[in-house]
Design the sequence.
């Protein structure tokens, strides 16, 4: 029978190679739509398979774990794959127009290379979420980095190249330190498979070294606060669909790997102090990112800085699931809330951020520049885009009825349950500052324009793509029952059963 | 009979709405004014005690008539009818007559409503309606005087209403029932009876013109058009009295401690107002002060009733009669002033009006053959009876008030005579029979009232019941000497006044100057002390916070740090630092 | 460079002697230990080179030095776990893959650096970085 | 059983009517003025019909509930109980009137689609607030209300409007997030909490009262912003920059009511009046409410702008509800609940008049309004009725609620409340009567807008007049016919009884 | 900006630089110490997968363990690795704005020594590449080594100016580049459709499949290396030069 796990990786790769081999204009649309369709189908098959028969595992090239590479799909990884699939396909729909011939925003070269790069990126994202081999994760991370940097350079502008270079160097540094960690782990455990390493008892200093290197490398690739320097220019200078892909999806991949290592390999919850450090860095990110976003004058930079802020929320999972030095879990009864809250935040942030970047793309296309001041009276000229930006803003702010609200609700419940009330303060201040810069943006949209300037027409499909994403980020907040059950299949966060 | 009851209230109400919506012309509204009072008068004359429950209205309203309110209905109805008739004719030339008729009818609704109301809610509702509508009458003639009078009137009456509301709230909270029947007993039984009685007394006192809170009366009555001031002085003041009778715990065992205070206030008012009235020059102000003094006499009666609960039915009967006769007389006098103005030209008419005025004045003063004497006698007998606590003191003081009344009214007659002779206030409108008739009826009514109307008897209580009025020779004599003495005193003072240099005219509202000074001082003090905290502090601190964030936008510190972090060496160093700290955290 | 190499030699011997002199069960200076230590030092020297200067070419080269360090470490591990059929093939495969990946990344980095140089005329990212 | 379980679907249907119309209006063309007007009117009528159906269903003993579980911890619950019926009826009826008013008022101004769209969304939110069955659903609609009102506040699009919008957003969002923390903390402490008359917290947890007091304080802070308690009221006068129908329905009725309604819900249905009394949290709240009443009236004295004066009077009037709610006793609770309705009706009349005067005469300042009655007698009459209602003169509805709060507080032995009521009535008179006096008795001045036309009557457009007259009549009839079986007072009494029976 | 400020700024910058070097040095040193300590604590003795790899070697159809690991046990890694190479080329195309190599700089004037040397070396290089490819089965060698050697040949052709890849047109270049990645892709899809685990080579014909895949990989690696050298931006693309002059006077 068709093994959906494999096809989740194969479908995008097939699409990529076809797109690379047949760069002609006539072929581009069918290949793109075909690839997106196939990938979505395989993602759907994988989800139903995992939903019905629990976590899956497949040994590649026939060899069992220690020698061969295993693909494992449990609730959390399927959740991330579904997120990537949904957001990716909608960004793809936007890109279909953005990189098509009717838009004059892109040259022919860009249009030819976008699809191969994006589909390989998509395939390797799925590969990361499925792989349970730390070296394989390294290679997949490298593929993602190169594809992402190549996508940034597509737009060809000078500052995009500089941003891409900075991102490449940072990511290269991160990968190398991750590889050093892998080497150390292999040296201590003699195996590369997550499950095998997890079963072996924890070694001493080498494991510490490995953890320090791998965690910092991945945090650098996830742009945690002090190491976020590369994200704002990279995400704001790239083209709209590319920055949406980067902010919504690529950043989450390295966070996913960090989570896998934290719970699986390094028994993270035992390291209470490290958990608190990561949580503090996350809170600093929330406040710093929001403050920076408040001070930006251009829309895409504002949204990029908001990404830096929102990533801070993700890192709150570490202190919440940590075990106090006295051994018992900090948030004894609330672990499910903490984990599901953070993963839900990842999902709703992906949807909302993608919607905002696509909206910013429409604004850039219609107004010619994304300076906030010349977005005057946008609510009259581009009602749907303003609506999409507003709803996405609502989800980012965590106001009901949105996905962001559900995530914020869960994280705050866990924080209060764990007695670590200071995270609640941070979330409160963060939420308000987010509201600050969202309404800073909306403020200009509502001011009636003084001189009616002549604008390029904005055709409907791209606005609808942004709107669809924004609506999804709100609708996701209405029904959490099923996603919760999906998330806990295969016990991805193995701290539940601990005493 | 029920329809008459509803008609008594609804007719004036619908009339006022019709006038407001210009549904009927000016002439028709005049007729409506005259007719509107009829049902109430008929009710007064013929209705027997009855009760009509209107459950859905306000707090569960009930309307009805009982012996006391019958008497009030009679003279109030008569007064409203007369004044309505009178104003229908005189007001025809007035440019803003529809406004006048509107407020006239609205006040009439209020007045009849509160007389017929048998529950506290309805009473208070119509009381407020009458108060606010009367404002329209007071300020009818535009100009500085009426504006000031209006402002004082509205401020005082609002304070009065608030005190009344507080009293009612405390009473109902303390268990007194909504409807009148068991309201007074509830108040009597209430623990904070003192507070409630005081609140009710002063709340209604504002309307009734009791001493400390009467200052609006001498200001408002003169400036209002004459028929309006006639009604104001005759009927509306009595509403306050009616309120007292119905609400205060009169006739219930524990006598409230403030009873002596009420009596002293009454006496003070009776003498003070009379003296102050004598010093005035404007006839209507003099009449206003005479009303204040007469009302103070009634306050004395109320005080006595509070002090001697068991004698209350006796006092009640006398009080009703006294109020009735005073109502008629005061209405007649006020109309008389206007009639005198109109009749200034022809001496035959002049003589007739002077005669009428004298007759009305004598009724109030209590001259023997007229109704006033009976009223005064019964009042003296009831209030100052042998076994009442301060009976003997009262026995002496009440005749004294009679003297003072004669002095004031004498001064009024003299001033009117003077005015008639010099005919300086001659009004353009010719005296038509339509104007003279109401005045005449009122004067006769004043004289005959005491005789005709049987005092209300309390069927239930076994306390001594008021007897049918009879005037023996001894009584007549007892009534005459105070009048004589009063005339003597007046003559002496007039001669003295001619020799002394012109005494400066005492300002109309005597205590008012005190109050305005006090209020202005508090407001100034309030402003000077710069009300601490919220009032001064604009309290919208949020925009300040916002602006500070806004300014920080221009502040360079944040952007410098961000740019510094972007440089490669710093970023690299940060990376290494974090690796080291993570490792150190685990090892240590 | 000479200063660097003799400094390095002294460090090796210091460590070896420390290892030797230390408590008996610490590993005696076997050959693969030397390579591992060198690999670690290489890694740190590359890191040091990377984070002190902002010149793009210098950064790419330091990254390759770091990469070299890691690959040396892997080969040393393979050496340590060598069975009778020769060294452990998995680290070797990992090294090979790592080298190819490093090649691709460096090629792209160099192309990007040249493009930036051709556009901006400088070989650095931020005016703030000194590109000595 | 009918095919669809109508008790389940009627509540979302009520929400849906205005929600769908709102969204549909967005997609209309700007020029379809009458289509848009008719659509909104129709939706309002349908909603009124549905509410009436629910009302008579409720009185005949049916229970309406729609439960939909969002996540393991909390579910989205719409439920009709007596208390929610009160506010739903108010919001729906007043929306119907205000839509009619808005159609007349906004004729000719631009981007009306956006205006009417968000207008219906706001009503959805305010009805949602009313029929929310538990704290979380209440919070969802509470925040949705903030978002839906922002575009209306900044509707004019001028710099000042947007600045006002910013202040409005900062106040309400801060309040919202503080309330959020309170709700979550309560959820962590007591598990999912539904509104049950007589309060649910008492039974669940009695070992850490300090936390419960802290939660109560936080919630009051959050709700206080919308209920404009003193330090948090700054946004209300600022939001007066919005067009008149907005300030009428929203800032006088829907938004502020959400805050007051929230406070009533928390006190009665979450904590329970008895438990809160034992916790001792009620008196400080009562003191704050009293200070707001006095402070609001004091500030209103100094305002020359009519709408600002009305705004400050809303600030003070609203705290009657809070004051009444904090006093344990059947009468005071009835008073506070019935004031919820009365204040809404009276205040909306005043705002309608203010809007009509602004549109017809171009006058916004009180000093300009002398002698207005001759030109706009009907508007001035309605304004006078409203003003007397505010003062609490008897025939109007204001008197009834003041009476009940007064008697209730006297029964509960808190005499100082009556003093506060009196002072505030005096202050109300001090800032309303001069306006009424200058309208009716002031001498006529040349009017700004209509320089040309002569002295004749120049009444506002009838679509402005009809709603104004209806609400003015209501504010009188609610007072006059207070003891009638279907009057709001009676409904409030029934609710109060349910709240006290379970104690 | 007066000279004084300039010198001041330069002195300050040098001071800042010195601080940074010290900090970086300390950080790197600490990391070194950490790593050294970690290495010293590494467990001793054979730990890895040497034995299992050797034991299963028979089934992989290849004799040399490393090639077995690379192309059988962990062929998925190698596939992604070839994908990385393909990505690098795509990135370069993205940088140059298009895959066509036509506007590569025209061949320099013919240099007799160079032409002679190329004529001699090219055949030898291809021969060694072939040998290395075949050697992979028994000894260290295989696709990557062969590919690089062949790539060097391509580079040499490029440097010596003799036309090579830039003549064969865009589509051909794309196919040559992608053939390695496609090989693995086809293998994966085939094994999937055949019901085996992805990339599971049937023991019987594993050897030939590996050889075939290796040859295709070599071709694509060689082309990638050659194209990387040829298509390096900045070498020729005229628009870039114009931008540089603009930059120059902006700076002076």
Sequence:
């Amino acid at each position: 029978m068709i093994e959906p796990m494999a096809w989740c990786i194969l479908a995008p790769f097939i699409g990529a190679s076809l797109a690379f081999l047949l760069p002609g204009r006539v072929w581009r649309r069918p290949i793109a739509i075909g690839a997106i369709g196939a990938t979505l189908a395989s993602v759907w098959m994988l989800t139903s398979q995992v939903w019905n028969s629990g976590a899956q595992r497949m040994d590649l090239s026939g060899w069992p774990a220690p020698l061969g590479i295993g693909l494992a799909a449990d609730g959390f990884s399927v959740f991330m794959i579904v997120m990537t699939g949904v957001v990716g396909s909608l960004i793809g729909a936007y890109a279909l127009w953005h990189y098509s011939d009717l838009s004059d925003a892109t040259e022919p070269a860009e249009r030819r290379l976008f699809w191969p790069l994006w589909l390989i990126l998509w395939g390797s994202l799925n590969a990361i979420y499925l792989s349970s081999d730390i070296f394989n994760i390294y290679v997949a991370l490298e593929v993602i980095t190169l594809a992402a940097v190549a996508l940034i350079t597509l737009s060809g502008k000078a500052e995009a190249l500089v941003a891409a270079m900075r991102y490449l160097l940072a990511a290269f540094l991160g990968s190398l330190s991750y590889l050093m960690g892998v080497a150390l782990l292999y040296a201590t455990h003699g195996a590369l498979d997550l499950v095998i390493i997890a079963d072996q008892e924890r070694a001493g200093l080498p494991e510490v070294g490995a953890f320090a290197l791998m965690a910092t490398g991945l945090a650098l690739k996830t742009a945690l606060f002090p190491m976020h320097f590369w994200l704002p220019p990279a995400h704001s200078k790239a083209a709209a669909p590319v920055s949406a892909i980067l902010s919504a999806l690529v950043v989450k991949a390295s966070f996913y790997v960090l989570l896998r290592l934290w719970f699986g390999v390094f028994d993270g919850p035992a390291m209470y102090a490290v958990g608190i450090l990561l949580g503090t860095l996350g809170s600093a990110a929330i406040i710093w990112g929001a403050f920076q976003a408040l001070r930006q004058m251009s829309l895409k930079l504002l949204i990029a800085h908001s990404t830096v802020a929102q990533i801070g929320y993700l890192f709150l999972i570490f202190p919440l699931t940590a075990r106090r030095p006295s051994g018992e879990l900090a948030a004894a009864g609330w672990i499910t809330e903490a984990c599901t809250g953070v993963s839900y935040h990842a999902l709703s942030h992906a949807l909302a951020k993608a919607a905002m970047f696509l909206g910013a793309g429409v604004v850039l296309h219609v107004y010619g520049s994304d300076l906030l001041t010349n977005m005057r009276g946008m609510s009259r000229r581009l009602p749907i885009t303003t609506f999409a930006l507003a709803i996405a803003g609502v989800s980012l702010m965590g106001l009901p009825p949105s996905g962001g609200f559900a995530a914020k609700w869960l994280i705050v419940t866990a924080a209060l349950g764990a007695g670590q009330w200071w995270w609640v303060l941070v979330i409160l201040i963060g939420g308000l500052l987010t509201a600050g810069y969202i309404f800073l943006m909306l403020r200009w949209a509502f001011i009636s324009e003084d001189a009616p300037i002549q604008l390029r027409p904005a055709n409907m499909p791209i606005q609808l793509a942004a709107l669809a994403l924004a609506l999804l980020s709100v609708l996701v907040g209405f029904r959490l029952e099923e996603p919760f059950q999906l998330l806990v299949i295969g016990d991805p966060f193995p701290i539940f059963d601990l005493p | 009979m029920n329809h008459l009851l509803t008609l008594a209230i609804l007719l004036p109400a619908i009339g006022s709405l019709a006038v407001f919506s210009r549904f009927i012309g000016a002439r028709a509204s005049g007729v409506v004014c005259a007719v509107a009072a009829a049902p109430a008068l008929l009710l007064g004359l013929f209705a027997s005690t009855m009760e009509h429950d209107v459950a859905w209205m306000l707090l569960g309203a009930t309307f009805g008539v009982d012996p006391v309110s019958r008497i009030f209905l009679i003279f109030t109805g008569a007064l409203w009818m007369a004044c309505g008739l009178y104003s229908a004719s005189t007001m025809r030339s007035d440019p803003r007559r529809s406004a006048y008729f509107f407020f006239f009818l609205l006040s009439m609704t209020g007045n009849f409503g509160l007389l017929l109301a048998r529950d506290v809610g309805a009473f208070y509702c119509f009381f407020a309606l009458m108060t606010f509508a009367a404002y329209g009458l007071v300020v009818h003639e535009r100009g500085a005087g009426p504006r000031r009078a209006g402002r004082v009137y509205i401020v005082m009456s609002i304070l009065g209403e608030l005190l009344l509301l507080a009293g009612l709230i405390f009473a109902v909270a303390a268990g007194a029932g909504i409807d009148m029947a068991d309201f007074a007993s509830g108040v009597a039984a209430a623990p904070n009876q003192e507070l409630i009685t005081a609140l009710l007394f002063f709340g209604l006192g504002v309307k009734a013109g009791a001493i400390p809170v009467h200052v609006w009366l001498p200001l408002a009555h003169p400036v209002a058009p004459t028929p309006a001031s006639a009604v104001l002085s005759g009927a509306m003041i009595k509403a306050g009295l009616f309120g007292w009778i119905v609400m205060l715990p009169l006739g219930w065992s524990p006598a409230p401690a403030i009873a002596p205070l009420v009596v002293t206030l009454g006496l003070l008012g009776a003498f003070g107002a009379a003296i102050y009235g004598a010093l005035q020059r404007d006839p209507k102000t003099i009449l206003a002060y005479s009303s204040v003094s007469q009302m103070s006499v009634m306050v004395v009666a109320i005080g006595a009733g509070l002090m001697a609960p068991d004698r209350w039915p006796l006092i009640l009967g006398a009080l009703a009669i006294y109020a009735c006769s005073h109502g008629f007389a005061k209405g007649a006098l006020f109309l008389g002033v206007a009639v005198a103005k109109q009749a200034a030209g022809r001496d035959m008419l002049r003589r007739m009006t002077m005669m009428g005025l004298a007759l009305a004045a004598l009724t109030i003063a209590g001259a023997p053959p007229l109704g006033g004497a009976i009223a005064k006698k019964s009042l003296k007998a009831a209030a100052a009876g042998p076994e009442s606590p301060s009976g003997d003191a009262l026995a002496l003081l009440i005749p004294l008030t009679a003297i003072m009344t004669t002095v004031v009214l004498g001064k009024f007659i003299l001033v009117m005579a003077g005015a008639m002779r010099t005919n300086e206030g001659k009004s353009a409108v010719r005296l038509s029979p339509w104007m003279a008739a109401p005045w005449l009826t009122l004067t006769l009514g004043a004289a005959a009232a005491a005789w005709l109307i049987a005092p209300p008897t309390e069927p239930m209580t076994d306390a001594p019941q008021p007897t049918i009025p009879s005037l023996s020779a001894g009584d007549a004599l007892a009534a005459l000497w105070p009048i004589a003495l009063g005339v003597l005193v007046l003559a002496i003072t007039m001669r003295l006044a001619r020799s002394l240099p012109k005494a400066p005219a005492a300002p109309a509202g005597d205590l008012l100057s005190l109050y305005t000074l006090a209020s202005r001082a508090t407001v100034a003090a309030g402003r000077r002390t710069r009300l601490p905290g919220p009032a001064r502090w604009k309290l919208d601190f949020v925009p300040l916070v916002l602006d500070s964030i806004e300014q920080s936008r221009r502040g360079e510190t944040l952007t410098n740090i961000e740019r510094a972090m972007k440089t490669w060496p710093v970023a690299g160093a940060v990376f290494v630092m974090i690796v080291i700290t993570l490792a150190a955290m685990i090892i240590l | 460079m000479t200063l660097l190499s003799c400094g390095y030699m002294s460090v090796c011997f210091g460590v070896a002697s420390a290892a030797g002199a230390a408590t008996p069960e610490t590993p005696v200076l076997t050959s693969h230990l030397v390579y591992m230590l060198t690999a670690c030092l290489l890694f740190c020297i590359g890191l040091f080179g990377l984070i002190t200067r902002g010149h793009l070419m210098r950064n790419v080269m330091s990254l390759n030095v770091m990469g070299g360090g890691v690959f040396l470490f892997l080969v040393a591990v393979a050496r340590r776990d060598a069975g009778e059929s020769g060294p452990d093939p998995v680290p070797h495969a990992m090294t090979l893959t790592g080298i190819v990946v490093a090649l691709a990344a460096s090629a792209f980095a160099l192309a990007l650096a040249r493009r930036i140089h051709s556009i901006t005329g400088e070989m650095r990212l931020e005016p703030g970085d000194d590109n000595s | 059983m009918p095919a669809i379980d109508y008790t389940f679907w009627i509540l979302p249907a009520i929400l849906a009517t205005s929600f769908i119309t709102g969204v549909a209006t967005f997609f209309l063309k700007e020029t379809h003025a009458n289509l848009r007007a008719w659509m909104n009117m129709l939706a309002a009528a349908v909603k009124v019909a549905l509410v009436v159906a629910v009302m008579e269903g409720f009185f005949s003993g049916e229970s309406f509930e729609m439960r939909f579980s969002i996540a393991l911890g909390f579910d989205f619950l719409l439920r009709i109980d007596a208390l929610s019926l009160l506010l739903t009826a108010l919001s729906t009826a007043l929306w119907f009137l205000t839509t009619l008013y808005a159609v007349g008022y906004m004729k000719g101004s631009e981007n009306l689609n956006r205006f009417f769209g968000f207008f219906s969304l706001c009503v959805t939110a305010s009805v949602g607030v009313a029929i929310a069955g538990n704290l979380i659903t209440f919070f969802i609609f509470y925040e949705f209300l903030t978002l839906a009102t922002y575009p209306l506040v900044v509707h004019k699009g001028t710099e000042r409007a947007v600045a006002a919008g910013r202040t409005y957003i900062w106040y309400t969002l801060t309040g919202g997030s503080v309330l959020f923390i309170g709700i979550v903390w309560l959820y962590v402490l007591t598990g999912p909490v539904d509104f049950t008359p007589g309060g649910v917290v008492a039974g669940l947890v009695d070992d850490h009262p300090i936390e419960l007091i802290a939660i109560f304080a936080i919630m009051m802070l959050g709700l206080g912003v919308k209920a404009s308690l003193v330090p948090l009221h700054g946004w209300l006068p600022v939001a007066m920059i919005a067009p008149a129908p907005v300030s009428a329905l929203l800032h006088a009725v829907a938004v502020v009511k959400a805050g007051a309604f929230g406070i009533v819900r928390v006190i009665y249905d979450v904590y329970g009046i008895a438990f809160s009394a034992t916790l001792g949290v009620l008196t400080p709240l009562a003191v704050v409410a009293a200070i707001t009443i006095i402070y609001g009236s004091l500030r209103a004295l100094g305002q020359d702008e009519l709408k600002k004066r009305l705004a400050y009077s809303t600030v003070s009037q609203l705290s009657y509800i809070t004051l009444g709610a904090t006093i344990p006793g059947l009468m005071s609770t009835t008073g506070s609940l019935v004031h919820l309705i009365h204040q809404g009706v009276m205040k909306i009349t005043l705002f309608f008049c203010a809007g009509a005067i602004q549109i017809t005469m171009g006058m916004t300042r009180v000093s300009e309004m002398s002698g207005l009655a001759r030109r706009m007698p009907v508007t001035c009459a309605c304004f006078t009725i409203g003003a007397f209602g505010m003062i609490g003169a008897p025939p109007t509805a204001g008197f009834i609620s003041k009476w009940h709060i007064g008697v209730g507080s006297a029964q509960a032995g808190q005499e100082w409340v009556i003093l506060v009521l009196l002072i505030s009535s005096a202050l109300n008179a001090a800032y309303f009567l001069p306006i009424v006096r200058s309208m009716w008795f002031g001498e006529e001045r040349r009017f700004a807008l209509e320089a040309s036309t002569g002295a004749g009557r120049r009444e506002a457009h009838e679509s402005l007049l009809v709603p104004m007259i209806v609400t003015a009549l209501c504010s009188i009839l609610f007072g006059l016919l207070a003891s009638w079986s279907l009057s709001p007072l009676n409904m409030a009494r029934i609710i109060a009884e349910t709240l006290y029976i379970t104690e | 900006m007066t000279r004084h400020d300039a010198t001041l700024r330069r002195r300050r910058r040098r001071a800042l630089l010195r601080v940074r070097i010290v900090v970086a040095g300390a950080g790197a040193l600490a990391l070194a110490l950490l790593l050294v300590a970690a290495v010293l604590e590494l467990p001793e003795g054979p730990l890895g997968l040497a034995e299992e790899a050797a034991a299963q070697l028979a089934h992989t159809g290849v004799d040399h363990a490393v090639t077995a690991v690379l192309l059988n046990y962990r062929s998925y890694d190698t596939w992604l690795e070839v994908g990385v190479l393909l990505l690098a080329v795509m990135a370069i195309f993205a940088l140059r704005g298009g895959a066509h190599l036509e506007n590569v700089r025209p061949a320099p004037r013919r240099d007799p020594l160079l032409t002679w040397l190329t004529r001699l070396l090219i055949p030898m290089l291809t021969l060694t590449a072939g040998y290395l490819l075949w050697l992979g089965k028994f000894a260290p060698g295989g696709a990557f080594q062969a590919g690089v050697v062949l790539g060097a040949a391509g580079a040499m052709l490029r440097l010596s100016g003799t036309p090579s890849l830039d003549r064969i047109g865009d589509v051909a270049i794309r196919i040559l580049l992608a053939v390695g990645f496609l090989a693995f892709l086809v293998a994966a899809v085939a094994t999937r459709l055949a019901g085996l685990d992805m990339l599971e080579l049937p023991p019987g014909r594993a050897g030939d499949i590996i050889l075939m895949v290796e040859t295709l990989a070599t071709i694509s690696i060689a082309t990638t290396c050659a194209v990387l050298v040829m298509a390096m931006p900045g070498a020729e693309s005229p628009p870039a030069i114009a931008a540089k002059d603009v930059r120059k006077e902006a700076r002076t």
